[in-house]
Amino acid sequence: MLKLDILVIAAHPDDAELSCSGTIFAHIAQGKKVGIVDLTQGELGTRGDATTRKQEAEEASRIMQLSIRENLKCRDGFFANDEAHQLAVIKVIRKYQPEIILTNAIRDRHPDHAKASDLVETSAFLAGLKRIETIIEDKLQTPWRPKNIYHFIQSDYINPDIIVDISDFWENKVKAIKAYQTQFYTSSESMKGEQTFISTPEFMNFLEGRAREFGQAIRTKYGEGFTTSKKIGIGSLFDLY
């Protein structure tokens, strides 16, 4: 079993790259093991398809140097916070035993994002209950509950509870995002065909503006914001910027 320090559980391939890949790069640089589990294949996306998204996710994973990446192949647009989906998420939480989970925004223009947020919060709690039994590779899994869950911030503006300095990793983040060539603006060639909210140069400008805004709030160049439903404890005031 590979134990992870951080597990990102996201609704779609590219959610993590867009919203928390700077944080991923920063923690891998610190020697932490980080992995991603995508809930869906993003098959309802206007541009590309499940096959191209899979290839793009593999390239982004290579760029980020992830320890693992899996896809649960839930139905894009139609997964729910119900028992079947909870058990699937519980299994991956118990499989990788992360100390921290990063997941989707608590609200967003895309309804899958808030649904994923609720699903992961519920499943992470249930994963710690010993009377819920799950089996993987013919073995009974050990209950596991992460220490913290942090929700990244997506299209909707949400006031962050914490901001991670990603100034040293901004260019890496852009490379990971641009691995999704069917989804985002990478060149004039990518402007061909039907355009979407996220496929234009303006969306890339929005991402940089948001990162600069969060960075400015903590007196750095770029930042990524997160919210949490738990109180944050520290051992020293000097741990804070």
Which percent bin holds the helix content? Answer: 25-40%
- Total helix count? 6
Strand-pairing-aware structural class: alpha/beta
* Rounded radius of gyration (Å): 17 Å
**Proportion of beta-strand residues:** 15-25%
Distance between the termini: 36 Å
Order of helices and strands: EHEHEHEHEEEEHHE
Strand order of the largest sheet: 3-2-1-4-7-9-8
* Overall body shape: globular
Low-confidence stretches: none
Report mean pLDDT, rounded to a whole number: 95
Question: Which key terms come to mind for this protein?
Answer:
241 residues, two-stranded antiparallel ribbon, alpha/beta
Question: Would you write up a description of this structure?
Answer:
- With 241 residues, the chain is of the alpha/beta class.
- Helices cover 36% and strands 17% of the residues.
- The chain is built from six helices and nine strands, in the order βαβαβαβαββββααβ.
- The strands form two sheets. It has a seven-stranded mixed β-sheet. The chain has a two-stranded antiparallel ribbon with strand order 5-6.
- Strand 1, helix 1 (15-29) and strand 2 form a beta-alpha-beta unit.
- Helix 1 packs across helix 5 and helix 2 runs antiparallel to helix 5.
- The N and C termini lie far apart (36 Å).
Tell me briefly what this model is.
The chain has helices at residues 15-29, 50-64, 83-96, 111-126, 170-178, 201-217, and strands spanning 6-10, 34-40, 68-74, 100-103, 135-136, 139-140, 148-152, 162-165, 223-227.
